[in-house]
Amino acid sequence: MKPVKLTMTAFGPYAGRQEIDFSLLENRKMFVISGKTGSGKTTIFDAISFAMYGKPSGDNRSAGDMRSQFADPKQATKVELLFELKGKQYVIRRTPQQEKMKARGDGTTMANATAELHELTEEGKLVLLAANVRDTDEKMNELIGLEANQFRQILMIPQGEFQKLLMASSQDKEKILQKLFQTLFYKQVEDRLKEKADVLKQEAGKAIDQQIILLKSIPPYSDQMRLLLEKDDVTKEAILDQLEADLLQMNDEYSTMKETMMNLNKERDDQVAARERSIALNDQFDRLEQALEIKNQLDKQQESMQQLKKNIELGEKAEKLISYEESVRKAKKTAERALERKNEAVENEKSARQRFLQVDAAFKREQNRQPERDETMQRFQYLEAMKDAVLSFNEAIQNESNCREKLEKAKADGTEMEENLQKLNRALVQLEKDLEPLHSAGERYIEAEHLVEKIMQRLEQYNEIVSIEKSLILLMENETKAERTYKEVDQQWAKSKNQLNTLRQELYQEQASILAENLTTGKPCAVCGSIHHPNPAVQKSSTASLKLVEQTEREAASLEKKTRDAERELAAIRFKIESAKTDIEKLKSKIPDGQSGSDIEEALAQAKKQHETAANDRSKKQLLTDSLQHKKQEKELLLKQVEQNRQKQADENHKQIEAKSILAQMKKTIPEPMRDVQVFLQSFEELKNQVEQNQRLFNETQSAFHEWSTVLQSAVAVVNEREQAAIESNRSLNEATASLTERLKALGFIDIHAYEEAKSYVHELSRMKESAERYDQEQQMIRMRIDELNKVTAELERVDINELDSAIDSLNLKLGEWTNKAAALASQVNESKRLREAVQRLSEQILRVEEEYRLTGHLYDVAHGKNELKVTFERYVLASFLEDILSSANTRLAGMTNGRFRLLRQVERSKGNAQSGLELLAFDQYTGQSRHVKTLSGGESFKAALALALGLAEVVQNYAGGVSLETMFVDEGFGTLDPESLDQAIETLMDIQSDGRLVGIISHVPELKERIDARLEVKQFDTGSKAMFVFSGKE
C-alpha cells in the first residue's frame, strides 16, 4: 500500500480542508515531517489509519475524538485517501460519528459514521466497491490482508511504542504477540485438552458407578450370591465368579424342567390324537344316517323319472322330422317369392315400354331444331373473339383511374407528413427541457438506497437487541427456577444419603448382634478371630432390612442423578445468560448512543420517503429518456418517409400519363356498344348459356333414347326368366311335402298334430336327459356310499368326546405351570447374562477411558507449562515468532552498533513459579556476556527498539501472507542519538527505502532535515494548522 493523496477536513488541528499530495515526492523515498509540538504531525498518521480502518494510529485516541475544535460547526469532519495497491488505485472516504447542525431548527443531532470505497480506473472513473462502514471494513481487510493492529505495527511506529516490546516482561510480551499473531488458537488447544481430560475423568467415574449399579441389580439365585450383594466391600470379580456358578446350576435346573415338559407334551399329544380318531368315527356314523335319508328321497322320485324317459324318446323322434318340416317351409316360401318376382317383372316391362315411347318422341323434336342451334353458336363465337380486347380496354380504364387516385393520395400523405414533422420537433424540444432538472436522479437514488440499507441494518441490530433482552428475561426466570430446583433436589439427596447411612448402621448392628448370640468364651470370633469377647453387640430394635436398604440406595442414586442433571441445566442456563449479555453489548456498540428504536424507525421512514422520491425521479427520468429516444427515432423514420413520398408522387404522375396514352389507342379498335364491359359480359354470358342449354337438351334426349331402349329389352328378358323360376319352385314344394308325410308314418306319428305335441319336448331334451342321468348317478353313488359306511362302522359304537377333553385340559394345566416356571428361570438366566455382558463392556470402556485419560492428562500438563522449562504451548509458539523477529532485528542492530550488540531470547527457566521464555537479553561483543535489555543506555535502547520494531514489521508482514506494503512512518525522537548513531540509524532507514518503501519520519533533529531533501512542514496558527511539502531548501 502506498499513499498518493490524503485530504483531511475538520480533522484534528486542521480546521478546514488540508490536502497532502504524496505524488509531489516523485522519486524520493524518504521525507521528514517537522513542526512544533501539538501542531498535527502525528495527526497525519491518525488520518491515514482512520481512512484505512476507522481508527487512529494510537491506542489512546478514538475516532470520535478527532474532530477539529477550530472547525466551523456547519463543516463535517471527513477524511479521503487516494492510495495505490498492486498496480491499482483506490479512493476511500470516511466520516466519524459526530454532532452536526440540525437541518431545521436550532441545536445539533448525532450523525453516524460513514464510509465508502471506490476503485479509480485508468479512464479516471470511480467504481463503487462498498457503500457503508461494515462493507468498507470487510473490503479493506480483503484488499490489505491485515488487521488494524498489524497495519500499525508494519506501517506506523507511533510515539512511545518503540520501548513497549523491548522492555516488556515475559507476560506483557505474551499479550502483545498474542494480538499481533492471533495465537489464541494455541491457548484454546490447552483449554480443549483440559476440557477433554475432565470429561474423560468424569466418564470413567460414571462408568464405574454404572458398573456398581449393574452388579447390585443382578437377581440373586443362590444364598451365596444374595450374601455377596449385601456386602459393601465385595469385589466385582467375586460377584462375577458366583454368577458363573449360579448360571451353571440354573442351566441344570432348566434342563430338568425341559425333560418334564417333554413328557407332559407327549402324554397330551397322545390324548389329542385319540380325541381326533374318536371325532372321525362319530363323523362316519353321522354320514351313514345322512346317506340313508338321501336314498329314501330318491326312491320317492322313481315314477316321475319313468315318465320323463318316455317324453325324452318322443322328443328324439320329433327332432328327426324337424329338417323335413324346415324343407317344406323353405320350398313354400321360395314358391311364393318366385310368384311375386314374376308379377313385379310384368309391371316393370309395362312401365319401361311407356317411358320409351315418350323419350323417342322428344329425341325426334330435338333433331328438328339443329339450324336454330347453329345460328346461336355463330353469334357466341364472335363475342368470344372480342372478349380479351374488351377486358383489356376495361383494365386500361381502371388502371388510369387507380393511377390518378394514387397520385392524389401521395400528395395528401405528403402534406400530413410535413405537419407531423413540425409536431415532432416541438415535442423533442419540450422533452429535453423536462429532462434538465432530472440529470442527477440516478445518483440521488443510489445515495438514498444506501442510506435506507444503512438505517435498516441498524434497525435490525436494535430489534435483535430487544429480542435478546426478552430472551434474557426468560433465561433469568429459568435460572431462578433451575437454581430452586437444584437446591431442592440437592437437599433431598443429602437427606436420602443420611437416611441410607443410618439404615446401614442399623443393619450392621443387627447382624453383629446375631453373631454375638453365638459367641462362646475360649472360641474364636468369626469376624476378628479373638477368643475373648469383652463387649459383645447387643440386640436393638430396628426397622432396617436388606430390602429397605436396597430401596433407599436406589432412591439415593436416583436423587443423585437428578441433582447432577439440575446442576448441569443451571450451568447451561447461566452460560446462555452470559452469552446473551455479551451479544447485547456487541450489538449496542454498533448503535450510536441515545438512539432509540423510534428514532431509528423515524429516520428510516424519512430515508424511505427520500428513496421513494428519488425512485420516482429516476423512473420519470427513464421514461422521459426513453420517450426522447423514441421521438428521435420517430423523426428519423418520418424524414425517410417524406423523401420516399416525394419519389412516390413523381412515379405515380409518370404512371398516370402512360395509362392515358394506352387508353386512347385502345378506343380506336373497340366499337362503341362494346366499351361498356358489364353490358358486353352480360350479352356474352347469355349467349354462352343458350349455346350450352341447346347442346345439353340434345345430349339429354339422345342419351335417354338409348338408355330406355336398353331398359325395355332388359325388362322383356326378366319377365321370361321369372315365369320359368315360378314353375320350378312349385315343383320343389310338392316334392318336400311328400317326403314329410312319408317320414311321419315311418316314425309312428298318427298325424301332424301328434308330431307337433312331441316337438314341444325338443328344446328341453338336453335338460331332461341331464336330469335323468343325474338321477341314475345319484342312485348308484348313494348305494355305494351306504355299503362303504356299513363296512367302516361294523361292530363299532359312538365315543363320548367330553371325557377326552377333560383329560387334555388337565394335562395342559400342568404343562402351563411348568412352562411358566421354565420361562421365569430362563428370564433370570438371560437377565443375568445381559448384566454380566454389560459389566464386561463397562470394564472395557473403563480401561479404554483410563488409558485415554492418562495420555490426554499428560498432554495437558505439558501444554499447560508443567514441564522443566515452565513454557506453555502458546508461549512456545510465541517464542518461535520472537526468534524470527530477533533474527530480522539483529541484522539491522548490527549495522547501527557496528556489530557490538545482538538481541537474544532468555531460554533459562525463571525463578519460582513464574512462567518464562519471552524475556530479552542483549549480548555485548565487547564483554562477551549477555545482560538484560533494561540495562542498556538511552541511545542503545533506542537502537535496539528501532531494530526490534523494524524486525517486527517485517515478520508481521511475512506472516500476514506476504502483503505488499510500500510505506512506513516513524514517529519517534532521534534526539537521544549521538551523530555517529544517528548516521547509523539513518543508514538503516535508507536500507528500508532502498527496497522501494516510502519512509516518513517525524523528528525535530536538525541533522535529519539536512540529510533528507524532502520535508512536510506543519505550521500552527490560531485558526488551525497547515501542512505543505518543501524540497531542497525551496519554500
TrEMBL record:
For the biological process aspect of GO, one term held by this record is: double-strand break repair
* Matching SUPFAM superfamilies: P-loop containing nucleoside triphosphate hydrolases
**Coiled-coil positions:** 240-355, 407-506, 549-590, 625-660, 758-852
Tell me where in this chain the Rad50/SbcC-type AAA domain is found: 5-203
Q: Does the keyword Hydrolase apply?
A: no
What keywords are assigned to this protein? Coiled coil
Gene Ontology terms, MF aspect? ATP hydrolysis activity
Looking up InterPro entries in the UniProt record yields: P-loop_NTPase, Rad50/SbcC_AAA
Gene3D superfamilies referenced in this protein's UniProt entry, alphabetically? P-loop containing nucleotide triphosphate hydrolases (3.40.50.300)
Instruction: Output the PANTHER family linked to this UniProt entry.
Output: ABC TRANSPORTER ABCH.3 (PTHR32114:SF2)
How does this polypeptide assemble, per the annotation? Heterodimer of SbcC and SbcD.
So what family is this one in?
Answer: Belongs to the SMC family. SbcC subfamily.
Instruction: Report the protein name in the record.
Output: Nuclease SbcCD subunit C
- Source species: Domibacillus epiphyticus
